[in-house]
Amino acid sequence: MPLSTRSYSARWAAVAAVTVLATAVAGCSSGKTGKGGTDAKGGTPSGSASASAPSGSIPVGPGPQSAYTVQRQPAPGTCHFRYTADKQPLPDPTCTPGATNPKVTPQTLKTTICQSGYTKGIRPPVSITGREKTANAKSYGYTGSPHDAEYDHLISLQLGGDPNDPRNLWVEPPSPGHKPGAGPNNPKDGVENKLKAAICAGKADLGKAQQAIAHDWTTALSSLGLKE
């Protein structure tokens, strides 16, 4: 017997409601991404527990370790040096965005970077960094003398940089005017010393100094209003 108009409308309303519900459930369950996903080029430490900071900020590394292990570097040839107008080297921001030491905060300055001898106690041994440097040179396609390149912490240990997170380390080529065979001659070190002094004297904010050095070490002091 034919359905009445009212019964017909009611049944189709029920079917439509079920369809909408099924679509909503499917939409919620699709497109999930891994919570800890990383860019294969970015070089998150193999086997480490390092975590990324919120988008737009510097990643946070695992911090000082009682025993360091050699960290996996980005694939060979995937990183590229950048240069300032006066030919000072800068790292690839994707491979080497910097990473901070979670033990160093505005509240712990006196017992960490502003305490004499702190960085010496957390620096990884050459037996670890030497192997990382060799691999990282391949990441950046550096073919110069290893003796003339510095395996540099982008955010130095004295500015609260992570000791062995590969996102904070890069093979830094020598600066212009370097004499081959003379070893590293990077003026970046002098910038780091001035930034640390300003932080410990209360003249510069820790986080802003870390951001400045990670962005461009050649403009870090001027961007913070400090004397170069």
Automatic annotation (TrEMBL):
Residues 29-72, 159-191 are annotated as: Disordered. The keyword Signal applies. Residues 1-26 form the signal peptide. Keywords: Signal. It comes from the Bacteria. Residues 41-64 have a biased composition (Low complexity). This is Lipoprotein. It comes from Streptomyces yunnanensis.
